Amino acid sequence: METPILDVKRLKTYFYLDDEQVAKAVDDVSFAIRPGESVSIVGESGSGKSMTANSIMGLIGKPGKIIGGSIELNGRDVSGLSEKQMTTIRGKEMAMIFQEPMTALNPVFTVGNQIIEMLRKHKKLNKKLAREQAIHLLEVVGISRPDQIIDEFPHRLSGGMRQRVMIAIAISCQPKLLIADEPTTALDVTIQAQILALLEDMRKKMDMSILMITHDLGVVSDYADRVIVMYGGQVVEQSGTKELLRNTKHPYTQGLLDSMPDLTTNVDRLKTIPGTVPAATEFPEGCRFASRCPSVMGKCISTNPELVEVSAGHHVRCHLYGEGTI
Question: Is the pTM of this model over 0.85?
Fold first, then answer.
């Protein structure tokens, strides 16, 4: 078994709010990513997906704090590193593509400046070589006229081009782990497909691992080797993609699948999961999905189930499966 490129163990990221409330944004989350593997985290807004990614990158900010667990990158625990130490790792060993490229890119610098900054910081290139490399990176990510686009400001580019620039920045130092947080949000379906295909191509060519945050199970089925389903700041199901789609266990995962449109049938209204994800400051004592679950039982109200292995590599957090057996 290969050593994981990323190994998250029982991670807890809490936010301590002014009114003395505690928001348990990430609460006892564990998973690992192997070299060259593509893993997706799925779930509704508020389930803890993005905060898990931000915790890994060391970008949670105040009043957030990692209060438990570890984040091992290439065998080194980075969860307790200082901001100065993290800046030597971000971009070089792991990088992130953010959800909104218009806000992630600095509007007062050209796209070239922003790629060149990364190259000069981590690769110690001079200005001329860094500019040449930046033009090459823009070409690699499929931007035409890269020698001209390099001098454009972000607002002059389309959403798809801005996302390609973000990818160019992220892969500039050839990190072994790339985190993509909803990388196709607000893009039309044609551009979405192009961006996802580009990421998959980069993964194969650079032997890079990808952790993709998404709510789109269609994306998951096409591009992910494994799937992590999150709800209420916790992992509720985790498995290989084919196994999870074929043999879904958790009622929440089944609800997500049922809510997807089916091109083979005509329906007037898509299925929904009733209710909403509870606020991170108001998680119930028992199962966090209990108030929305069609299979709820008495013990679901009082006891939050553990994540158990129900078959090889398939883990579920649900009282329907008891202690689990392999």
Answer: yes
